[in-house]
Structure prediction request, 407 residues.
Amino acid sequence: MNILVLNAGSSSQKVCLYEITDATVLNQAPQPLWEGKINWIQDKNGAEIEVKTATGAVLQEYIEGDSRSAHFAYILHTLTHGATKVISQLSEIDVVGHRVVHGGQDYRNSVVITEDVKNAIARLSTLAPAHNPAAVEGIEAIAQSLGDVTQVAVFDTSFHSTLPDAAAIYPGPYEWVEQGIRRYGFHGISHQYCSIRAAQILGQDLDKLRLITCHLGNGCSLSAVKNGCSIDTTMGFTPLDGLMMGSRCGSIDPGILIYLLRQCDYSAERLDYVLNKASGLRGISGVSNDLREVIAAREQGNERAQLAWDIYVHRLQAGIGSMLASLGGLDALVFTGGVGEKSPGIRQEACTVWEFLGLKIDVVKNQQQPIDVDIATPDSAVRVLVIHTQEDWAIAQQCWELCKINN
Prediction:
């Protein structure tokens, strides 16, 4: 079965093709046959196209024009033509899986996309405005290019549907509960994959582990995972809650918002922009939403970059502490995402504060760009894992399993 996976962002679209058969070992992530990425350049009338195949073929181009559907059609064209060709025709694609950030209360498992499902994803765009609209665009682009191929929605919120009410319900008026205002949590595909992979690396039963998974990228969230289920997480009703992020503020006093609305004449649109696009590392440092650039500025003595680092670390440590309280103990701390996988300094800072629990990080291993390995010392009471998240493969797995059930 050929499964095409779309992972949509607000300014990019990642696409990859997997081939899965009954002989495929589903708990091991294979290299995709083909993978592509469209980067839409802000303030430019065009897109960067990057494609590579498992056999080493590479394509990089800049495409003029502002038609996202045309860009998408072009990247699909490279599946069947030129040096990056891996299939003879697009009809060889059996199913298409989409990462959908917000599924609301109604979608707690992966589902085959119907018109009703697509419309529901569109309605939920108010809760994930940077992502759900892009997912809808991808669904419609696939329908245009591949016709009535089976499409599947895999929701980032699904893994957190096991949150107990005490963790999920906000202490506002009870009417909020009836209106669906609650903690949904996000990055669920990544948190679930990393939990399963952690158990494999440790050679232990996931149903007996207490894990804290730290997905740290431009967006950041933690999940407390007990017996394979998410029981607490830092993101909330929207992906804006929780940790300090690249350009999102994370948790703040809601009284600040009331103050800005009353005293500074902020509109809802201005608040949305400031909280989502002009806060976090970017807002504090004044340098960038990219932690690498903030670190470089910090090393050159930039005081605002140092402050951004300090706040980021403080919020991360505090978040881990809150997850510890929910778990009542810890077997492994897991780092993933662009920052979690590539920043030894952040891992070091996140771990050092828990030495009183017997957690000991191996400083040498931590610096060696570890992937899917334990970087704790042999005598550490808590294992520390760095795992390369494989969201696309996790989506392909869920498509395969859903199609097997439906057939």
